[in-house]
């Protein structure tokens, strides 16, 4: 039997998750914050079709300057993609989308894990990775050290409309 999901509860939960995520970014970006100027990793787990909507809401809830990078399916490393887009710029936060579409995702995850110390040395802002369940599992399996850097995983529930599509 398929459990019924109350769409109002899903929306309420998702709003609370967005607020927590915005607060985590804002705290890291706020002047005189304890973590200001330090790298942090935040994982956002949701369906790829929901990423744009979540990012829009996040920008509404947060006063931080949030920069976005959408990875190409041909991306080889996360670090070089970030460096090539940002140069010396240090935004308040950086959102990375498109991991689920990367063709060589296992290699990208492994190289990111190997370069994790460089992220902390070079980037003085929170890095927000949008992942789906599959990419999250691969992070846990292929890059446990990197995954452990994430303070927590912000999970968004599937909407009732998308639930119907799954079945």
Overview of the molecule:
This protein has 167 residues and is α/β, with parallel strands linked by helices. The chain has one domain: Rossmann fold (3-Layer(aba) Sandwich), CATH 3.40.50. Helices cover 50% and strands 17% of the residues. The chain contains eight helices and five strands, in the order αβαβαβααβααβα. Strands 2-3-4-1-5 form a five-stranded parallel β-sheet, with helices on both faces. Helix 4 crosses helix 6. The radius of gyration is 16 Å and the shape is globular.
- % residues in beta strands: 15-25%
Biggest beta sheet summary: 5 strands, parallel
CATH topology: Rossmann fold
Helix content: 40-55%
User: If classified by CATH, what would the architecture be?
Assistant: 3-Layer(aba) Sandwich
**SSE topology string:** HEHEHEHHEHHEH
Secondary structure: number of strands = 5
Shape call: globular
Strand order of the largest sheet: 2-3-4-1-5
Task: Please give the CATH class.
Answer: Alpha Beta
How far apart lie the N and C ends? 12 Å
Radius of gyration, in angstroms, nearest whole number: 16 Å
- Overall pLDDT level: 84
Q: Estimate nothing, just give the exact number of structural domains.
A: 1
Secondary structure topology:
Layout: H1 7-29, E1 40-45, H2 51-61, E2 66-70, H3 78-86, E3 93-97, H4 105-114, H5 116-122, E4 126-131, H6 133-142, H7 144-149, E5 150-155, H8 160-166
Parallel strand pairs: 1-4, 1-5, 2-3, 3-4
